[in-house]
């Protein structure tokens, strides 16, 4: 499958000498959701701005649907919808006028039925004739998505789409994003919410200090870098870890009531049997055991620390 967005050797250095992007290479494929994770100042917004033609790259190439964004800016930009972080809307217009006007800016013919569909998709149909200044922050965020969809783009960029949005509305937005992907829209989002990436993305990209540390299928990333923990609830608390258990990666927690053994899911041997044998030999009894998987947040923190 040919990528719908292809980024090759992309660099961005500002006039003051700050290098915001360092040799970024990334292919994005039709119909996927890719999440870009990274701390503040990592380069996420700069990367999106560069792909959308808002910022000019220092070097490198970007193609959208096989066309160079610099040489065919009008054609490539018409394929892209962008939802920025900032709530930039005309306070004295209405959602209906705003979405209709945005559609016209891209040279699209008037289509009231499509505008109605978009406003219904983002749950703003009932507010279509209200002044935007009267809408809540969450509604304004959804209106930005409607504006970005006004010209029927094939690619949608969401820059921190859940910033300032409550949990319930965030989940509604996740459902909308999945619905858009199911209709064939390719979605690239930046987020600070680890659970957002874990919930929605097909692939995860991690950016730190302007470098794309990795891009990996979410499930593969969890398998490769995720660790599992065997949690044992003891019948009797331990004052300290016996010497025979100190050779294992075991922690004593909860005032001696819990033992936690961490093991690599990709290792040829997990060592669980050996640990359980050592516990038996040490006459340590437990009432319950369970396993937990490292979260994407744990993996992200480790990757950034390595970077």
From TrEMBL:
SMART domains named among the record's database cross-references: AAA
ABC transporter domain residues: 5-234
Residues spanning the signal sequence: none
Pfam family, one: ABC_tran
Keywords: ATP-binding, Nucleotide-binding, Transport
InterPro entries: AAA+_ATPase, ABC_transporter-like_ATP-bd, ABC_transporter-like_CS, ABC_transporter_ATP-binding, P-loop_NTPase
GO molecular function, one term: ATP binding
Superkingdom assignment: Bacteria
The protein's name: Multidrug ABC transporter ATP-binding protein
Organism: Pseudohongiella acticola
């Amino acid at each position: 499958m040919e990528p719908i967005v292809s980024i090759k050797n992309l660099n961005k250095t500002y006039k003051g000498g700050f290098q915001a992007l360092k040799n970024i290479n990334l292919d994005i494929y039709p119909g996927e959701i890719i999440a870009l994770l990274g701390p503040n100042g990592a380069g996420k917004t700069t990367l999106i701005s560069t792909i959308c033609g808002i910022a000019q790259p220092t070097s490198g190439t970007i193609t959208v649907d096989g066309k160079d964004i610099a040489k065919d800016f009008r054609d490539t930009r018409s394929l892209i919808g962008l939802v920025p972080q900032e709530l930039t809307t005309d306070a004295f217009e209405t959602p209906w006028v705003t979405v209709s006007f945005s559609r016209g800016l891209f040279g699209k013919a008037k289509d009231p039925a499509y505008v109605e569909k978009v406003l219904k998709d983002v749950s703003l149909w009932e507010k279509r004739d209200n002044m935007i200044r009267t809408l809540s922050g969450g509604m304004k965020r959804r209106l930005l998505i409607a504006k970005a969809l006004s010209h029927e783009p094939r690619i949608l960029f969401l820059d921190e789409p859940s910033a300032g949005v409550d949990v319930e509305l965030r989940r509604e937005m996740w459902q909308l994003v999945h619905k858009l992907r199911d209709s064939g829209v390719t979605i690239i989002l930046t987020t600070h919410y680890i659970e957002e990436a874990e919930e929605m993305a097909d692939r995860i990209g991690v950016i730190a200090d302007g470098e794309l540390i990795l891009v990996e299928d979410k499930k593969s990333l969890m398998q490769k870098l995720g660790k599992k923990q065997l949690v044992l609830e003891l019948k009797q608390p331990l004052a300290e870890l016996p010497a025979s258990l100190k050779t294992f990666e075991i922690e004593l927690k909860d005032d001696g009531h819990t033992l936690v053994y961490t093991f690599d899911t990709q290792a040829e041997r997990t060592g669980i049997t050996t640990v359980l044998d050592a516990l038996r030999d040490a006459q340590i009894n437990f009432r319950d055991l369970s396993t937990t998987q490292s979260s994407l947040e744990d993996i992200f923190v480790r990757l950034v620390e390595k970077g």
